[in-house]
Design a protein that fits this description.
The protein has 96 residues and is α+β, with helices and mostly antiparallel strands. It has a single domain (2-87), classed as Alpha-Beta Plaits (2-Layer Sandwich), CATH 3.30.70. It has three helices and four strands. The protein has a four-stranded antiparallel sheet with strand order 2-3-1-4. α1 (12-25) crosses α3 (61-75). The longest helix is centred in the C-terminal third of the chain and has 15 residues, at 61-75. The radius of gyration is 12 Å and the shape is globular.
């Protein structure tokens, strides 16, 4: 399962750097289930999306909202916007 991020910038490069930091930081967060569910890495993509977070198991709505809140916090001072699409595989969007 993946949560894919499309960044609308500029500055896209700074946003990707912040998302990379967040991907490394998420598994060490002690409060909330997200720390046990998200794989401790993300990757930069070329194509329709700019970055992806990989889930170790299927997230629930609370976990998805926690991820969105953390992304919001990471990007709030950058000045860019983003969209997030969570998919079961690389094709189909995930519905709660």
């Amino acid at each position: 399962m993946e949560s894919k991020i499309k960044i609308y910038g500029p500055p896209i490069d700074k946003a990707i750097t912040e998302l990379q930091k967040l991907a490394k930081e998420l598994p060490t967060i002690s409060n909330g289930e997200i720390s046990r569910s998200i794989i401790p890495s993300g990757e930069t993509l070329m194509g329709d999306f700019d970055f992806v977070f990989h889930w170790a198991k299927e997230p629930d709505e609370k976990q998805l909202r926690q991820l969105i809140a953390r992304i919001d916090e990471s990007l709030k001072n950058i000045g860019c916007r983003y969209t997030i699409t969570t998919t079961i595989d690389s094709t189909y969007p995930y519905k709660l």
